[in-house]
Amino acid sequence: MNIDYSIPIDATLLPRIAGPQDRNLRRLSEAVRSRLVVRGSSVFISGPPDEEEALRSVFRDLSGMARQADVDPAGLDAALTLAGLALPVEPDRKRDNGDGLLVFERRGFQLRTRSRNQELYVRAAEQSDLVFAVGPAGTGKTYLAVAAAVKALINQQVDRIILVRPVVEAGEKLGYLPGDMREKVEPYFRPLYDCLREMLRPEELARQLDQGGIEVAPLAYMRGRTLNNSFVILDEAQNTTSAQLKMFLTRLGARSRSIVTGDLTQIDLEHPGESGLAEAIIILRGIKGIGFITLDESDVVRHPLVKKIIAAYERERTENRSDE
To answer: Is 317 exposed, middle or buried (0-12, 13-18, 19+ CB in 10 A)?
Structure first.
């Protein structure tokens, strides 16, 4: 049984909510079973009753963001996540950015951007003290953040790099695990270590870790600290609660910079609608000095075989579904 209702929208905000060529509204329509039609300054909706409250929440959040700035894909995904709605995956788009922007170069190692969104990400990291980078795995959001931090450390723009993750699997209760803190959390930080090993020689990385030039820590260990003259990366931020992310963001001290990365489609919290990252993207929109970057499937850099593997699994899944 469907119900019909309308949600009034401030006419001055509607273009910012809808996005270019109504991109946001089309994406929203793909995430729900309801039918959405814009007439005048209202959105008329026909759909199942169990979606009404969620859609009202989505448009309430989108209106709040639109008062500060245009709603981008990250903002829309955040509103959908908080409302408990599934996120549609956008199709791949052709990359076109020439040779890419040079991000990092040292002793024969060279890193360039591979998509327009990655270039926007790097420029945002250079121009803003705090950047939120949201996107699926493989888009370079963590790799580029580590590159920016290592570059700042080498150029003596900061005194140290601090790598932070919420250790969801261990409930951040690490006291009973053997070894010192670095040994306890190393399995959870392996992706970050892998990035560092490509940019620093083994002995250089070991020295920085021993002398505190590079520090790794679970999110819980950030409480009560003030992080001055540091480049701080919070990875997997979709698995933070609102209180945890607020605590982290308020640690930022003088002459410090921070990048917060996450994937709103991979939330491991018991209640995904409580993701602190999704909430922060909404409530911090429009604050000068904070950058928001959305990476998508078109930014994924894969081995050529990977796309063929994905296509094969998708064909198998489609064929099995058609046989049911």
So the answer is: exposed
235 within 8 A of 164, measured Cβ to Cβ: yes
Q: In terms of DSSP bridges, do strands 160-165 and 3-8 run parallel, antiparallel, or are they unpaired? A: unpaired
Burial state string for 138-167 with b = 16 or more CB within 10 A and e = fewer than 16: bbbbbbbbbbbbbbbbeeeebebbbbbbbb
* HSE value, Cβ hemisphere, 13 Å, CA-based, for 57: 16
pTM (two decimals): 0.79
DSSP-derived letter for residue 86 is P
User: Cα–Cα distance between 194 and 208 in angstroms, integer?
Assistant: 15
Structure tokens at 152: 């700042």
147-171 mean pLDDT: 86
Report yes or no: 83 and 57 within 8 Å, Cβ to Cβ.
yes
For residue 85, the 8-state DSSP code is: P
Which tens digits make up the pLDDT trace of 182-196?
666 677 788 888 989
Q: Are the C-beta atoms of 162 and 227 separated by less than 8 Å? A: yes
Token code pair at residue 241: 């609660």
